[in-house]
UniProtKB/TrEMBL annotation:
Keywords: Cytoplasm, Cytoskeleton. This is Actin. Gene3D superfamilies: 3.30.420.40, Actin, Chain A, domain 2 (2.30.36.70), Actin, Chain A, domain 4 (3.90.640.10). Belongs to the actin family. It comes from the Eukaryota.
Length: 445
C-alpha cells in the first residue's frame, strides 16, 4: 500500500544552511547510513553523500570504449560466413586519467543524450565505478537520490527505479528535477532556473518546490557550441602553425603512438577548448559594440605546447552567439529557429500563469558550466530588463563560486537528502516490492 502524500519541503527548510554538513535523524538519514546523491549531466556525472558540501566525485560523462575480439576460437565450417551475432567484447575506461590514454580502436562515447540516459550499459559501468572507486561503499547500504531533467520521460524514470532496486538492491530511492534542486541550493523554492550546460540551455519555472513542466523551454546552444566557435576561430588564425619569432618550437610530438580514433582526437581538443572558454572569453553586458570590442584589453592563453597567444576582440565575439545567434557560424539551416538565452527565459516565463510571473522574474537563477563565462549573468540581466514589463521587479542571481554554479543541482540534492522532513519521502524497498517500478510516477513528481 502506498504511504500518504509526503510532506512538502518548506522554504524555511530550503533556506536553512544548517542542513549542510550534518545528517538528520530520520529513518534513512541518520549519521550511520547517509544517502547518496547522483547528478548525471551531459558533461560530467557528480556523486557524493547527502549532507556534504560538494560531491566526492566529478566524473566525465564520456567513457573510452575499446572493441576487442571474443576470447577463444570459434569453430567455422569451410566456406561459411562469420556469425554476425557473436558480440564483440568491450573494454570500458572511466575517469579522466584513463580516458586520455591513447589506444587503438577506442572511441569516446557519452551515455547521455538530450539530457537523459541513453546507453544503459555504459551508465551501469559508471555506477559501478562510483560505488567502488569514489564512494568506496556498497550500494545496498545507502538510499539513492537521483537528479533528472524536467523533460525526462516515464519509461526512463521507471527503468532507473527498477535498475537501482533490482540490481543494486538499494534500501530507498528518490528522483527529483534538477531545476528544483538548483533552486534549493540557491535558498529558494520558487523562481526561474536558467541552466546553460554542455549540450543545451534550458529555462525551467519552479513554483512552490515543483517544476512547471509544461512551460519548460530548451535550445541546443551551450558549451559544445561555444567550443565549436572557438575551433573555427583557431582554424582561421592558424594557431597550430605559430611559434615565437626567430625561435624554434621547444616541444616535439610523441612518437610511436597508436592510431587513435576521430572521437578521441575530438575529445582531447575539446578539453583544451573548454578550458580556453573559461579562461579568456568574456561577454559584454550590452549587445556587442564594435568600438567597445576594439578597446577591450587582451587576454593571454597558454596552449599545451607552451605557446602563448594574446586574444583581443575575438574573445567577446565568440560567446556573443549565446545572446545573438547571428554571431554563430556554420549553424545548419534546420536550426535557424533556435532561441537565444534571453528568448529561452522569456518564453518559459510567458508560458506560465500570469500571476506567478513576477515571482519567476524576481527569482531568476543562473547555473551550469556555461554560466562561468565572465559577464554571463550581467548580460542576461541587461537583456531581460529590456524585455520584461516595467511593473515586474527583475532579479538575476548566480551562486558566488564556480563550484556552486557547476554543482548546483547536486548541492540541492545534498540539502534535500539531509532534511528531516524529507525522510518520509523516500520510496522504500518494501514499497517498490509491493507496487513495482510504476511507483516512481506517483511518488516523484
Amino acid at each position: 500500500m502506498l504511504s500518504e502524500k509526503p510532506k512538502r519541503i518548506t522554504e524555511e527548510e530550503a533556506l536553512s544552511g544548517s542542513c549542510l554538513g550534518k545528517m538528520s535523524g530520520g529513518i534513512y538519514g541518520g549519521d550511520e547510513v547517509s544517502g547518496v546523491v547522483f547528478d548525471a549531466g551531459s558533461h560530467s556525472f557528480r556523486v557524493g553523500f547527502a549532507g556534504e558540501e560538494y560531491p566526492k566525485g566529478d566524473i566525465p560523462s564520456y567513457v573510452a570504449v575499446q572493441e576487442v575480439e571474443p576470447d577463444g576460437d570459434v569453430e567455422m565450417k569451410e566456406g561459411a560466413e562469420p556469425d554476425k551475432n557473436i558480440k564483440k567484447k568491450r573494454n570500458i575506461f572511466i575517469g579522466t586519467t584513463k580516458i586520455i590514454v591513447p589506444r587503438a580502436k577506442t572511441t569516446i562515447q557519452n551515455f547521455m543524450k538530450d539530457g537523459m540516459i541513453e546507453d544503459w550499459d555504459m551508465f551501469e559501468n559508471l555506477l559501478d565505478y562510483s560505488y567502488n572507486e569514489v564512494l568506496h561503499s556498497e550500494a545496498q547500504y545507502h538510499p539513492a537520490l537521483f537528479t533528472e531533467s524536467a523533460w525526462n520521460d516515464k519509461a526512463k524514470r521507471e527503468r532507473l527505479t527498477e535498475l537501482m532496486f533490482e540490481k543494486y538492491n538499494i534500501p530507498a530511492f528518490f528522483l527529483c528535477k534538477n531545476a528544483v534542486l538548483t533552486a534549493f541550493a540557491n535558498g529558494r523554492t520558487s523562481g526561474l532556473v536558467v541552466d546553460s550546460g554542455a549540450t543545451h540551455t534550458s529555462a525551467v519555472p519552479v513554483y512552490d518546490g515543483y517544476a512547471v513542466t509544461h512551460a519548460v523551454v530548451r535550445s541546443p546552444i551551450g558549451g559544445d557550441v561555444i567550443s565549436e566557435q572557438l575551433q573555427y576561430m583557431l582554424d582561421e588564425q592558424n594557431i597550430e602553425e605559430e611559434v615565437n619569432e626567430n625561435e624554434a618550437p621547444r616541444w616535439t610530438k610523441k612518437k610511436n603512438l597508436p592510431e587513435v580514433t576521430e572521437s578521441y582526437d575530438k575529445f582531447m581538443k575539446k578539453q583544451i577548448l573548454e578550458d580556453m572558454a573559461i579562461s579568456i572569453l568574456q561577454l559584454c553586458d550590452t549587445p556587442l559594440d564594435a568600438e567597445y570590442a576594439e578597446k577591450l584589453p587582451s587576454a593571454p592563453y597558454s596552449f599545451p605546447n607552451g605557446f602563448t597567444k594574446e586574444f583581443l576582440a575575438e574573445r567577446i565575439k565568440v560567446p556573443e552567439g549565446l545572446f545573438d545567434l547571428k554571431y554563430l557560424r556554420n549553424i545548419p539551416a534546420s536550426q535557424s529557429t533556435l532561441l537565444n538565452v534571453t528568448q529561452i527565459a522569456t518564453t518559459a516565463a510567458g508560458m506560465c500563469d500570469i500571476d506567478i510571473r513576477p515571482t519567476l522574474y524576481s527569482g531568476l537563477m543562473v547555473t551550469g558550466g556555461n554560466s562561468l563565462i565572465l559577464g554571463f549573468t550581467e548580460r542576461l540581466n541587461h537583456d531581460l530588463a529590456h524585455k520584461c514589463p516595467p511593473t515586474i521587479k527583475l532579479r538575476v542571481s548566480a551562486a558566488p563560486t564556480p563550484m556552486e554554479r557547476r554543482f548546483g543541482a547536486w548541492i540541492g540534492g545534498s540539502i534535500l537528502g539531509s532534511l528531516g522532513s524529507f525522510q518520509q519521502m523516500w520510496i522504500a524497498k518494501s514499497e517498490y516490492d509491493e507496487t513495482g517500478r510504476t511507483i516512481v510516477e506517483n511518488r516523484c513528481p
